[in-house]
Write a structure and sequence with these properties.
One of its GO terms (cellular component) is outer membrane-bounded periplasmic space. By secondary structure, the protein is an alpha/beta fold. The chain contains twelve helices and twelve strands. It is 42% helix and 19% strand.
Length: 303
Amino acid sequence: MKKLWLVLIACVLVLAACGNGSDSNSDKNKKETKSYTLDSGKKVEIPKNPERIASVAPTYAPGLKYLGANLVAVSDQVEQSDVIKDKFKGVEKVGENDVEKVAKTKPDLIIAYSTDKNIKKYKKIAPTVVFDYGKHDYLDQQQELAKIVGKEKEQQKWEKEWKAKTKKDGEQIQNKIGKDSTVTIFDEFDKKLYTYGENWGRGGEVLYQAFGLKMPDKVKSLTEKEGWAEIKQEKMADYAGDYIVSTSQGKAEPSYQSTDLWKNIPAVKNDQVIKINATSYWYNDPYTLEFMRKDLKEKLLNQ
């Protein structure tokens, strides 16, 4: 009888040890991390396979979603885009300072802009990757997101297909409008007129980088540093290209389009103005890029 008890006790101890080992391995897997180098040059330890991402920077949320990442919180600004808002049904929407709301979603990784004033608070919640938007073109941006979630192969496949499609599109468009034709983006915001370069949304990435179309030299010089610039309405003719991409919000036309200055611009007289919906053109993720590619191609080829 005594031997039987000793055998039973030994079995219990072995099972307990196995159980503890399993728990230990499970915890180890959950806590497995990798090093990621921030735009600042500093390194941060992030989950090797993040499972609950909060993107308080709206720019990066759709790119992560496209790669199959699980987002538990995103900036409420994504709802302003007709292209991507439906991609985040059921995901918690957070405002600029909703730090506590972000914390309640229990993220294991947070993505933020370098200009976000709540970075220190976010770091207390979860490892935080801080992006300097101006340091990445749209392709590089998607590459970095792929590194974070371990989807490099998926990103490379998308990029290869994207370049092939847009190269063909660009050749078609240039054959139609002329290889030396220039394109300018005009955008009105808060009654001020702006123009944009090749990597600040509003179609710049597709027009200038993917399609290979040219921007006027004056626009290039003006937007080279910041990526965008305000221009005086009385000077808009100086920056107008052979074709103009004009953004508007809703049905109302921009106020500058009611002026004689606008009506006398050659591109306007020649009916070479491409009208687009501003809110659908703000971002530069794969979903939005594909929408812009099709929309711009159709409108340019129909000129």
